[in-house]
Specification:
With 736 residues, this protein is α/β, with parallel strands linked by helices. It has 23 helices and 26 strands. A six-stranded mixed β-sheet has the order 11-16-15-14-12-13, sandwiched between helices. A five-stranded parallel β-sheet has the order 4-3-2-1-10. The protein binds 1-deoxynojirimycin (NOJ).
Length: 736
């Protein structure tokens, strides 16, 4: 974090209290303050700073936390939120503890605090980092007004397996897109200085490769080569660190035999030594304790020892650092310097946040900040940028406002709770606009025939008749199907990617009426919707669109907004194809090659249903004139790639121009293509734009057999398109 003005304010908090040093003080001044504080702390007080305890799920304080706060033995609390409650607990620390070190309040502010924005997978579908930055800056303002100064976000795990429920929390399958979104989220939460009003400190999680869980089963083992770690799983974390993220969270998973919460390679060698991260690392919930279940610690003492030694600074929920810390130091298993270093990192974040000077939230500010009209407007507008038009035969969409009657059908049509998705912060379903409410508001004069049809899960078709009647009586049908919000998220993996319950049968029943309809999908993961993709006239993917979701979807269905998003993750035809991702290797027998026996399936095509980067618009675009500033460059050189994009249709709309690269022959196998640039452009009918990307050595290189990052001479295929499939091609030579 860049040190700013030298404003050293030593307004002491009492004779024995911690001195306040302005968050705008230089790094050196902060370190000096920490040193003087450390010199006065007992070992118990130090260990107290390394403890994070959980409040109740609905944000309340637990009585023992007040006790610990008074004793100066509580570094951080998670879930306790709201100006009133945080102030109450903070007073115990600031007024009654010996050293008056403020408590750091943390919470999972993942896609909004009270005003909920689309789930992160949806935000990534915008292919517009400013969407993430804006949403997270609103989230930060609301959270900080409610006393929360630390969010456990962004979740920057790459996910190539949609069975894994937590795919909803990240930016999908690609490291380049993921890195762009990670940096944007850090900027949104933290701004340029997270001590500023309305800013909070972010946390890059889950370090690392958590998304590679075998079988898509949450918390499961991961086996990932170092090259894949460095090229696929690390980049979004690196981007977050480069953007100045203040904290990171060690993941639950076992990584090649060493759980991430005891992994000194990832926590110390890479994060600290290679990347020079000077922030704080918190364990995931009970992850220190879980080292015993992993079988790398025989007891709590050993679990604490391994996590501390590997580089986990703060322990979330389990209390082994506090129970065993003194004894670990006394018997020489953990040097005091290790404890001091962890405490230093915790205090560093507190100083950088300005928490010593401003420990309290303000109820008045909280009331004035949450769920404001401005925030709601932002939520509605940003949500429209996250939708992906998967199919639109014969311009089924957008709909005509003159429609006299509309059937709104499906188990998710009036589900405001699902609209705010999993990990919905302090969001409330009462604040949320369902699709049905959004359609009603959009067309107040039309006759709306609502029918639920069936539940999201279960076997009953009892509601089909009413749904079919509603469709038959209406000029058009909107069918809202998918998953309820509680079908993705933590510990919510699925073995099937099909539409659950009777929903496909419901679509088929409506289809059989022969009346026009469109499918609106709501879901936290890619779904295998082969039948729908083949037979339904129009499909709009809306993820879980947030508090203003229903209005945003209605805006899009009726053409007040253009669905210009693109898939941040591949949609498979069947769960059997998983893991399926665009930046795969070629194999020795690629499909379409000259071998009769190729890498595919005997029962279905090997290709995805919808590829990464795919998405339509209400208008059409054409790419032309792909030009490289040089045909050959040196390994340390760079090249500019330009292309023209034109809106050839009759409506304004957005296109995402995407640049991919393939290193055709290298010393190690390379992916068939890798995203290296993208830009979302808005164009009026007939308008065209020149889009330019620059490729530098960092984009051309890879990790060789000795794990060195190298740019090797040879040919690179350059591909520019509007999806990871198709587009214009050229080539580039790298020569010594
Ligand atoms: C466990 C989850 O893995 C993590 O993402 C979250 O931040 C913590 N619980 C706290 O809620």
């Amino acid at each position: 974090m860049a040190p700013c003005l030298l404003l050293l304010a030593c307004a002491g908090a009492g004779p024995a209290g911690a001195q306040t040093v302005s968050a705008t003080a230089s790094d050196q001044e902060i370190e000096n303050q920490i040193s003087s504080l450390l010199a006065r702390m007992t070992l118990a007080e130090k260990l107290g700073q390394l403890q994070q305890l959980n409040g109740t799920w609905d944000g309340d304080i637990r009585p023992e936390q007040v006790q610990r706060a008074r004793q100066g033995l509580l570094g951080s609390v998670l879930y306790v939120r709201g100006a009133k409650r945080t102030t109450e607990l903070q007073r115990a620390a600031m007024n009654e503890s010996r050293l008056k070190i403020p408590i750091l309040f943390a919470f999972d502010v993942i896609h909004g605090y009270r005003t909920i924005f689309p789930v992160p997978l949806g935000e990534a579908a915008s292919w517009d980092p400013s969407v993430v930055e804006r949403a997270d800056s609103v989230a930060a303002a609301e959270a900080s007004a409610a006393g929360v100064r630390w969010t456990f976000a962004p979740m920057v795990d790459i996910a190539r397996d949609p069975r894994w429920g937590r795919i909803v929390e990240g930016s999908g399958e690609d490291p380049f897109l993921g890195a762009a979104m990670a940096a944007a989220a850090v900027r949104g939460f933290q701004g340029t200085n997270y001590s500023s009003p309305g800013k909070i400190v972010a946390c890059a999680k889950h370090w690392v490769a958590y998304g590679a869980a075998e079988g898509g089963r949450d918390y499961n083992t991961t086996e990932v080569s170092e090259r894949t770690l460095r090229e696929i799983y690390f980049p979004p974390f690196r981007a977050a660190v480069d953007a100045g993220v203040g904290t990171a969270m060690s993941a639950f998973n076992d990584l090649d035999g060493i759980p991430c919460t005891a992994n000194s390679f990832t926590l110390t060698d890479v994060l600290r030594k290679e990347w020079h991260f000077d922030g704080m690392v918190v364990s995931d919930w009970n992850a220190v304790k879980e080292l015993m279940a992993h079988g790398v610690a025989a007891d709590g003492e050993e679990a604490a020892e391994r996590a501390l030694a590997a580089g986990v600074d703060m322990e979330m929920v389990s209390q082994f650092y506090n129970v065993y810390g003194e004894q670990l130091v006394k018997n020489g298993k953990i040097p005091l310097a290790t404890i001091d270093q962890a405490v230093r990192r915790v205090l560093r974040i507190k100083y950088r946040l300005g928490l010593f000077e401003h420990p309290y939230a303000d109820k008045g500010l909280e009331d004035a900040t949450l769920l404001t009209a401005t925030n709601l407007t932002a939520a509605r507008k940003l949500a429209t940028r996250t939708f992906v038009l998967l199919k639109n035969d014969r311009e089924t969409l957008p709909l005509n406002r003159q429609l006299k009657s509309i059937a709104v059908i499906g188990p998710l049509a009036d589900d405001a709770q699902s609209m705010i998705g999993p990990w919905n912060g302090d969001g409330r379903k009462e604040d949320a606009v369902s699709l049905l409410a959004g359609i009603r508001a959009k067309l107040p004069a039309a006759k709306i025939n609502y029918a639920r049809g069936c539940d999201v899960t279960g076997d009953s078709r009892a509601g089909f008749e009413q749904a079919v009647n509603a469709a038959e009586e209406s000029d058009f049908t909107i069918l809202a199907v998918g998953e309820s919000a509680d079908m993705s998220g933590e510990a919510h993996s699925r073995s099937s990617l099909d539409l659950p319950g009777q929903q496909l049968a419901l679509i088929q029943a409506i289809h059989a009426t022969g009346k026009p309809y469109a499918v609106v999908l709501m879901n936290g993961r890619p779904l295998s919707i082969d039948w729908v993709a083949t037979n339904s006239p129009a499909i709009l993917e809306t993820w879980f669109a947030g508090t203003q979701g229903g209005n945003a979807i209605a805006d899009t269905l009726f053409g007040d907004a253009d669905p210009g998003g693109k898939l941040p993750v591949t949609f498979p035809r069947s769960v059997g194809q998983v893991p399926i991702y665009y930046n795969h290797k070629n194999t020795g027998r690629p499909p379409g090659g000259d071998s009769e026996d190729f890498s595919g399936y005997i029962d279905i095509p090997w290709t995805p249903l919808y590829p990464f980067g795919y998405g339509l618009s209400y208008t059409q675009f054409k790419l032309s004139n792909l030009q490289l500033s040089a045909r050959h460059i040196r390994p340390d050189g760079s090249v500019t790639i330009g292309v023209a994009v034109e809106n050839t249709g009759h409506r304004a709309g957005d296109e995402v121009v995407q640049l991919y690269l393939q290193d055709v022959a290298a010393s190690v196998t390379r992916p068939v293509k890798e995203l290296k640039g993208f830009e979302r452009v808005s164009l009026r009918p007939g308008e065209s734009r020149h889009v330019e990307f620059t490729l530098a050595p960092g984009d051309l290189g890879f990790y060789d057999q000795t794990m060195r990052f190298v740019v090797e001479p040879g040919t690179f295929k350059v591909m520019v398109g509007t999806s990871s499939e198709g587009g214009l091609e050229s080539s580039l030579e790298v020569r010594q």
